[in-house]
Amino acid sequence: MVALSSTFRRLRRRTAAGAGNPMPEHRAQPAQGDEASPVDIAPNDPLLAYLQSASGAVDVEALELDSPALAELKAAGVKLAVPLVSQGELIGVLNLGPRRSEQEYSSDDRKLLDNLAAQAAPALRVGQLVRQQQAEARTRQRFEQELEVARLIQQNFLPKQLPELSGWQVAACYQPAREVGGDFYDVIALAGGQVGFVIGDVTDKGVPAALVMAATRSVLRASAQRLVDPGEVLERVNEHLCPDMPAKMFVTCLYGVLDPATGHFRFANAGHDLPYVKTALGSVELRARGMPLGLMTGMKYEERETMLAPGDSLLLHSDGIVEAHDPQGQMFGFPRLKEAVARYPGGGELIDLVLADLHVHTGPDAEQEDDITMVVLQREPAHGDSPNGKVIGKLLAEFEVPSVQGNERMALERVAATVAPLGLAPARLRRLETAVAEATMNAMEHGNSYRADRPVTVRVYAEPGRIRVEVADLGGARSAPDQVEVPDLEAKLAGLQRPRGWGLFLIKNMVDEARESGDGERHTVELVMHLEPKLKEGDDDDDT
Amino acid sequence: MTTREALAHVRRRDGVAVIELVGDLNAAAESALDEAWTAATSVRPDAVVLSFENSGYINSTGIALVVGLLASARLHRIPIRAYGLTDHYREIFEITRLADFMAIDTDEDSAVQGAGGDRDG
């Protein structure tokens, strides 16, 4: 009814300047002033209901209703009110003053007006809808422009590149939601080779959040250079932000200082989600108490510290991950993220795997609810037992890949990174990568039916003179790689075979040995690649 | 690891349609490749050249997509060539015998000039 009321406010009465006075014959067009001011009909005025149900033109003078609008119409000299109804909805009223001949409106006049109203109403409705759509388009455009400004601000204040720290892998991910939340992260080079890591989240979205984020980042950077203790840094930032913080806004933020040489990590937390550390014993939360920034002055921030051992991995994250909902409304949750940190490898791979899990959780068509930010610090494992950079006869890596289309690249890259120190020639490494990717694709598709909850397990072994990779799924027995027929390209081109069917063929041709085994539950493909090419009879390896 | 979304741009050069493949060539690339092929052949070209210069990871499904293009090209008697393959993927094109049906060139100039030879021949 609000829309209807506003529509009526725009209606203008076509009445004679003086009710009851004949209009001069020469006035073909209404003179200025003949257009009277709009009639405002309140949503609860009974006249609305009457006009809505009227079968045709309504004699205003004869109508008796307790209606302020009707009284106004009568006072203005309106004789006939013709409802304009489109698709059962009253969208306007055609108000007429007395006839110029001073005669009453005849039944023919009324029929003519009813016909006119029947034809005019749809046209008027179309006009109203066009205006409404134009207004909505302008609103959308303004909204998109504001979002673009917010995106620009956010992106300009994120690190352009991450530091390269000897013995460490640093990876980060920032995925803004469409409405651009207030997530941010930062990496600050400090005195003595130490490095400050920041992750934060401003309440609210769009430009206001982006501006507060920019201010917080600037103050924090300046404070981090002057002060040593993370708690003092957050205290200083809070004091700076409080006076100018807009109402109902605040910033959660975790700030930590890493000594890359020792793995010592000191941190303080202003109400941000707790980070997780993957250790040899599982994943643990790093707890430190403190109020969010910008709420009130005089806050103190508890400072804690931990030691990141070789192989440990630290995940800083924003609430866009744990608060992401599945189609049934269930959140991803802290326990699942903690479990992911314990189960998955660290570095960029942890980010990819968490994002893949999140994608499975929210569903493929879900719009991202909030910004997603992750920063991972992984201390590389010690290689003291690796003479000449080659680890002999041992399991180098074991990891799982969720069975989601495209995830074979995770397996490929993880295996490539694992065997990198072993000195495999680049061309042979590419072949092993392709074989691992194809074996993983087969395992995800044929063994696990692309069910994310049925992961593919990959194990990488260094054995004397060779690398062995196992790719295991939960499917039954399938054809062995060494029994694969050569696909017939000519038959495929002639449409006699489907274009697909290259996977096992590639596996067999890419590695030195390919075998399969099964225990009734698990199906495993073994891929073997010798560190030095073994020439087959009549073969000519191009690595030499 | 970040999967690169597949894109396929079509441009024409000397009567030859060049389909430039950008990103990963996998199952997700199918629609981009189909659209590019339709655009490239909407006006019959003298030949089609596939540029792999800016493509990334290619898996067996990507190989199958190339087989599909090759089948379509042969059906319509449109010569097809390729360039910009890394040594690794060139090897895969050879062992799958794709290279028997599709000339592999080192650069775009050679591919377009070679296509001229296909046309004249």
Give a description of the structure.
The complex is a heterodimer of chains A (544) and B (121). Chain A has 544 residues and is α+β, with helices and mostly antiparallel strands. In chain A, 34% of the residues lie in helices and 24% in strands. Chain A folds into 3 domains: 2-132, Beta-Lactamase; 158-382, Phosphatase 2c, domain 1; 386-544, Heat Shock Protein 90, CATH 3.30.565. The model of chain A is unreliable at 1-33, 384-393 and 537-544 (pLDDT under 50). Chain B starts with 6 loop residues before the first strand and ends with a helix. Chain B has helices spanning 30-42, 60-75, 87-95, 98-101, 108-120, and strands at residues 7-13, 16-25, 47-58, 80-83, 103-105. Chain B has 5 helices and 5 strands. The radius of gyration of chain B is 13 Å and the shape is globular. The relative contact order of chain B is 0.18. Helices cover 45% and strands 30% of the residues of chain B. Classes of the chains: A alpha+beta (544), B alpha/beta (121). Chains A and B meet through helix 9, helix 10, helix 11, helix 12 and helix 13 of A and helix 2, helix 3 and helix 4 of B.
Specify the helix fraction band of chain A: 25-40%
Major beta-sheet overview of chain A: 5 strands, antiparallel
Number of strands of chain A: 20
The helix/strand class of chain B is alpha/beta
* Corresponding CATH architecture of the largest domain in chain A: 4-Layer Sandwich
CATH homologous superfamily heading of the largest domain in chain A? PPM-type phosphatase domain
Low-confidence stretches of chain A: 1-33, 384-393, 537-544
